[in-house]
Design brief:
Number of strands: 16
Distance between the termini: 41 Å
Strand content: 5-15%
Radius of gyration: 23 Å
Oligomer: single chain
Shape: globular
Number of helices: 18
Largest sheet: 7 strands, mixed
Helix content: 25-40%
Amino acid sequence: MVFFDLDTLENHLDNVTQLNATNPPKIKEFNTKNNVTQLNAKNPPKIKEFNTKTKSWWRGRQPEHQLNKDDFTRNGARHPNGTLGMIVDPSPERLREADDPTQNPLLCPQGVDSSSSSLVSFEGAKANIVLQKIRRGIRNSRAFLHDQLIITDDSKQQLKHDKGKGLRVGVVTVDENNTTSTQRRRRRSRILCMVYTVYIPGENNHSNIRSQAETWGRQCDGFIAASNFTDHSVGAIDLAHNGPEKYGNIWQKTRSMLAYAYQHYLSEFDFFNLCGDDVYVYMNNLRAYLDGPEVMRLENGYIDKISSAFQNSTTFNKNFTEFIIGFKDFTELNAVIEKWSSTRPRPLLLGGPYSHKGMPMVSGGPGYTLNREALRVFVERSLDHFLPNNRDSREDLYLGGALAEQGIFISDTKDVNNGDRYGGSATNTYNFEGISPIGIKWLEIYCGLKYNKGINSISEQFIASHLKDSKMEMIERHQTIPELMRRYHVIVNDLCERGV
């Protein structure tokens, strides 16, 4: 990819931004025909809401010929002065630091204290029990990620060979008793965290995304919040997309997010995690999972329960032929599944499954994770062809459908104890009784997935909590989702015990 040199232009743009903050120029590229929100032009935020550091977080700009005035999907980010095609540096270093939680009695009831993390605050007793379980899992994940690799002379030679090919295959490590072998990557995977959000002046002021940026967002290798307003201190960029800026158009925003990741960060990151601004991601657990033996086995061709179900034609032939659009029959579909199983790495869509008319799809609530190959397949094969003009909030159904059309299905991400890794809030998890709108019965019957109840329904290596489940609970307690997100963060990361 060839970019313009913006060393001089960046400083100019930053100066123009501040000069025009209260009277921005009209944006000719965005017109009413495309129904694109011009929030920045109509209601410019106060200058203090911009990241006022002198360092520019723009890497450059796409060449002009790559911009399309009729289709905004690949037009990239919009600079606050209206310039399209901007490429942001996604480094988490640009994110603002959180205030010391030990000084907030809501977050740390007893300040810095060895028992403070286990004390119940506004999250509630049930949620605290679940968070203590996840906390134990995070400690195990940290140990996994930081264990010293023991590499023999032979494996050192193999490492040198693999690095030359850009591979990240696993090596064998053993514990001090020489009894346990564990696979892990040759190098730690790089994860780009992407969040869809919206800035509404006087209503949310990026409050959710601010909490994400100050907590788990700083643990990502890259962090981008796709918004309608740029604020580098919370990782937000004004990302162009087709259609209006509203919940019912998340599919178009997601298309632009994935196109942006593919255009500018495909070779820089190994995994791409997408979610909404009401999700807390347990980054250490996500890292340990992605760099652990289960995902490595999937990338190396293992066919899990969900994909293998499609190879049983008697299971799906009668009821689910609508889901094999693009394939002549299930024999052809199975051939494609086998082809992907021999691709290295195999393209993966990781997340929590739900049933759409009995068909396993990825749930967008807690978010989902694509590896590099899955992102490549989606953008190169589906972006321009799979419902490119639809405007819908069900981006999870659309993304899952687009990849299913290519023979790629959501992977089984449960742990060995059938605990889910992607799911709802801690309270919702504690109360889970095996009945859910995600269609568990179908997933059990047709895919062989097993579901536990209550706290046993989730893995210690839980990855993402969709906090929307606790919104009404927080209103009753006069608290907010951003505050709940910070409380989750201090509990599972021992911040009340260790201080900052």
